[in-house]
């Protein structure tokens, strides 16, 4: 899932300081699950901002809302009147949510209350670790199911590097060496010969470096006729 | 629901009338909206008073009640039972904890106490109108088994008394010793896992090499023989060393202890068992004072790292010092040691003087004894809380000294804290009887103030499932969280942590709490 973290209260307060009527919108998907922007966090942020305002003698009006998935315009449309009625939308979704509001209501301001971080896996309650960076060309079937692009600090394809010691990475001893983990996993799977195979340079054209990527499924797209019938596109 | 409230004031705790005017409080209550009946009784936990208030409630057609007394858990469940009989929903009875929240913290300020009590009463009157009548449901128990964990003194007694109530008892004993016991004795067995709830537990037991599942209605935790083991270099060097309670027992039995007497806080001063239980200090001081009173020339030294004599016990510390009890404080740089060549001398670096002192002793006792190592694992498996001193936490000392917060799990003997065999046996008898009685009900009553999921809001994030200590939440057919009501103890942990605010505790909603808070904040105290 997408894992995000709330910005510090002071930063949010500074960001929204010039605006009077603020709608805070959370999201029930990834950011709710990673405890960053669900209904509880929305209400807590609003309470914290109210307390701060009272302490500092500032007057602002807040509305707290949550939508199912902020990255989809149909869900945002459900709270359209609130968005239009406010000076500023403070999005407690990932950046996708904030941008969806911005793209759909370009004359309105949608500010981010969260820092969107990683594609992460909950290791335990409250701990998420990055395991994918969305490079667009998955190779984990050759690396024991462990992604070296995301989990190795150098994204090495033929590892480990010389900085690996006792299973740890030289960048930070708290990080496990991805290639050590790959070696152990391949050994367990009786596929250790794979580690000796040299991987050629990866095709990075599928990665982010080529600018914004768009994924299209021609077969899933609606025809003009269907679109007209649904009236789904604004 | 009409909203006819009865306000009950309790004079029982003697501090209350001295500090606050209950008559005035009750008078004020009678002027409040919707209050149709006010009663001031001697003790709300007394059967006569209960009769009186319920009679009055019936006459005035009361449907909601506010009780101004001591903590909810201490007030006799008989009161609730009586209201239930009088057709007042037990979940519409609201308690104001006058003793803990007014009397104890404001003993020195009567006007403030009175104002606070009044505000709390007003908040409770508002709250009780916001409560909904809740229902309880019933489930059949599948067995009448009572499992006793531990076949020591208290465990055996527990099994005996439980068997007398008609329950089928199973003793799970870690060791291999054989003894006569009613029902089944499983030797060489350990508890691995527990599932379910009071009345219908499923335990996973490893018996020898086999792992089997065992259904039971109630559990008695009677582990804890480990308390009497004295581990550590000091205890090893001095074979005749005693735990404090044994010394206490021997002195009270009239045995003359050979002086000088040295009490050290731990048999392993450098080890993990450093944490000295508070009661052990109280007991050490009491014992030292007692000995000094009996004979002023008795020579007593208490060697400690940290004296935890809090509150009024500090006076005892002072008294003991005045009577001539010697106190020697040490720290990690000079822990007490016994040289095996000189088994009756303990040497310790006195922190005050910075010099090592050699203390010759006739009797050596230890204030702190390491807790049974099994306790933590068992508490974890059964999901019952531990006390800070390494024992398992029991319920209210007045109403449930051998109960745990989980219905159907009882506890006795040294699993609570170190004690003598006869006391452990007595506790075993009580715990066994309660467990037997619990199992013989045959029916589990559940529900009431439990957690409830609004499925439309649930993100199925699993947070509640990871958080709940009782395994009450689960993901249902709709791929949303649901609560296994029988297992829910109404603790509210899932409610607090749910990121989507999809879970609410019945009759303890945000609105109710906010209203209460607002009223309390408006209060002039």
Number of domains of chain A: 2
Low-pLDDT parts of chain B are: none
Helix proportion range of chain A: 25-40%
Please describe the biggest sheet of chain B, giving its number of strands, its sense, and whether it closes into a barrel: 5 strands, parallel
Question: What's the story with the biggest beta sheet of chain A?
Answer: 4 strands, parallel
Mind telling me which CATH architecture of the largest domain in chain A this is? 3-Layer(aba) Sandwich
Count of extended strands of chain A: 7
Helix/strand structural class of chain B: alpha/beta
Question: Which two chains touch over the largest interface?
Answer: A-B, 13 and 11 residues
- The counted number of beta strands of chain B is 26
Query: What percent of the residues of chain B sit in helical stretches (DSSP H or I)?
Result: 25-40%
Radius of gyration of chain A: 22 Å
Which oligomeric state applies? Answer: heterodimer
Question: Order of strands side by side in the largest beta sheet of chain B?
Answer: 8-7-6-12-21
| Basic shape of chain A | globular
Describe this structure in words.
Chain A has two domains: 2-118, Rossmann fold; 133-200, no CATH class. Chain A has helices spanning 9-16, 30-33, 39-56, 73-77, 80-84, 95-104, 148-151, 178-188, 224-230; strands spanning 2-6, 21-27, 61-67, 88-91, 109-112, 114-124, 127-132. Chain A starts with a strand and ends with a helix. Chain A is of the alpha/beta class and 234 residues long. Chain A has a four-stranded parallel β-sheet with strand order 3-2-4-5, with helices on both faces. Helix content of chain A is 31%, strand content 19%. In chain B, strand 24 (473-475) and strand 25 form a beta hairpin. In chain B, the strands form eight sheets. A five-stranded parallel β-sheet of chain B has the order 8-7-6-12-21, with helices on one face. A five-stranded parallel β-sheet of chain B has the order 13-20-14-15-16. In chain B, helix 7 (153-164) packs parallel to helix 13. Chain B is globular, with a radius of gyration of 27 Å. Chain B is of the alpha/beta class. Chain B has 16 helices and 26 strands. Chain B folds into four domains: 5-134, Rossmann fold (3-Layer(aba) Sandwich); 145-226 and 372-443, FAD/NAD(P)-binding domain (3-Layer(bba) Sandwich), CATH 3.50.50; 230-366, FAD/NAD(P)-binding domain (3-Layer(bba) Sandwich); 448-506, 2-Layer Sandwich (Alpha-Beta Plaits), CATH 3.30.70.20. At the A-B interface, helix 3 of A face helix 14 of B.
């Amino acid at each position: 899932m997408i894992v995000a973290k709330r910005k510090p209260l002071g930063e949010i307060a500074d960001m929204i300081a010039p605006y009077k009527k603020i709608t805070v919108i959370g999201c029930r998907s990834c950011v709710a699950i990673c405890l960053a922007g669900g209904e509880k966090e929305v209400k807590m942020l609003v309470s914290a901002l109210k307390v701060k305002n009272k302490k500092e003698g500032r007057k602002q009006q807040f509305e707290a809302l949550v939508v199912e998935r902020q990255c989809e315009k149909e869900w945002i449309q459900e709270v359209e009147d609130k968005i239009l009625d406010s000076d500023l939308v403070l999005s407690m979704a990932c950046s996708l949510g904030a941008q969806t509001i911005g793209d759909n209501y370009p004359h309105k301001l949608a500010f981010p209350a969260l820092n969107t971080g990683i594609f992460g896996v909950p290791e335990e309650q409250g701990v998420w670790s990055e395991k994918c960076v969305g490079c667009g060309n998955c190779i984990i079937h050759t690396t024991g199911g462990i992604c070296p692009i995301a989990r190795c600090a150098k994204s090495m394809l033929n590892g480990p590097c010389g900085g690996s010691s006792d299973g740890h990475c030289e960048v930070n001893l708290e990080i496990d060496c991805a290639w050590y983990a790959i070696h152990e996993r391949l050994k367990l799977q009786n596929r250790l010969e794979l580690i000796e195979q040299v991987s050629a340079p990866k095709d990075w054209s599928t990665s982010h470096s080529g600018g914004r990527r768009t994924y299209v499924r021609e077969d899933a797209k609606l025809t003009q006729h269907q679109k007209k019938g649904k009236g789904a596109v604004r | 629901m009409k909203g006819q409230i009865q306000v009950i004031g309790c004079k029982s705790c003697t501090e209350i009338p001295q500090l606050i005017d209950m008559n005035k409080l009750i008078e004020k209550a009678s002027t409040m909206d919707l209050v149709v009946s006010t009663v001031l009784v001697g003790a709300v936990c007394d059967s006569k008073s209960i009769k009186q208030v319920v009679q009055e409630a019936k006459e005035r057609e009361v449907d909601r009640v506010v009780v101004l007394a001591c903590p909810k858990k201490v007030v006799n469940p008989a009161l609730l039972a009586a209201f239930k009989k009088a057709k007042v929903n037990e979940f519409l009875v609201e308690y104001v904890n006058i003793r803990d929240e007014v009397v104890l913290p404001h003993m020195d300020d009567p006007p403030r106490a009175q104002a606070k009590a009044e505000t709390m009463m007003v908040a409770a009157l508002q709250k009780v109108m916001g409560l909904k009548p809740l229902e309880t449901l019933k489930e059949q128990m599948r067995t009448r088994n009572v499992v006793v964990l531990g076949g020591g003194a208290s465990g055996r007694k527990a099994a005996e008394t439980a068997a007398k109530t008609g329950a089928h008892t199973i003793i799970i004993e870690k060791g291999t010793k054989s003894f006569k016991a009613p029902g089944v004795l499983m030797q060489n067995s350990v508890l691995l896992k527990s599932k379910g709830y009071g009345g219908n537990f499923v335990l996973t037991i490893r018996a020898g090499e086999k792992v089997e599942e065992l259904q039971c209605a109630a559990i008695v935790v009677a582990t804890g023989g480990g308390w009497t083991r004295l581990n550590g270099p000091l205890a090893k060097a001095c074979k005749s060393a005693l735990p404090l309670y044994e010394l206490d027992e021997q002195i009270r039995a009239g045995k003359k202890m050979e002086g000088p007497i040295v009490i050290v806080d731990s048999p392993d001063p450098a080890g993990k068992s450093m944490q000295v239980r508070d009661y052990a200090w109280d007991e050490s001081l009491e014992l030292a004072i007692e000995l000094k009173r009996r004979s002023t020339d008795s020579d007593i030294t208490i060697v400690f790292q940290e004296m935890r004599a809090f509150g009024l016990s500090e006076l005892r510390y002072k008294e003991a010092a005045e009577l001539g009890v010697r106190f020697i404080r040490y720290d990690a740089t000079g822990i007490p040691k016994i040289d095996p060549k000189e088994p009756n001398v303990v040497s310790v670096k006195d922190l005050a003087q910075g010099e090592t002192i050699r203390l010759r002793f006739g009797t050596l006792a230890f204030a702190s004894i390491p807790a049974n190592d099994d306790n933590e694992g068992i508490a974890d498996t059964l999901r019952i809380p531990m006390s800070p001193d390494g024992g398992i936490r029991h319920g209210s000392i007045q109403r449930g000294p051998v109960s745990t917060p989980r219905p159907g799990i009882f506890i006795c003997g040294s699993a609570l804290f170190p004690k003598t065999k006869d006391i452990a046996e007595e506790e075993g008898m009580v715990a066994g009887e309660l467990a037997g009685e619990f199992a013989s009900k045959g029916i589990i009553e559940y529900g009431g103030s439990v957690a409830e999921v609004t499925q439309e809001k649930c993100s199925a994030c699993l947070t509640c499932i990871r958080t709940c200590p009782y395994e009450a939440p689960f993901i249902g057919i709709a791929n949303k969280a649901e609560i296994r009501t029988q297992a829910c103890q109404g603790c509210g942990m899932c409610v607090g942590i749910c990121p989507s605010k999809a879970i609410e505790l019945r009759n303890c909603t945000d609105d109710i709490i906010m209203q209460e808070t607002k009223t309390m904040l408006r209060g002039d105290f």
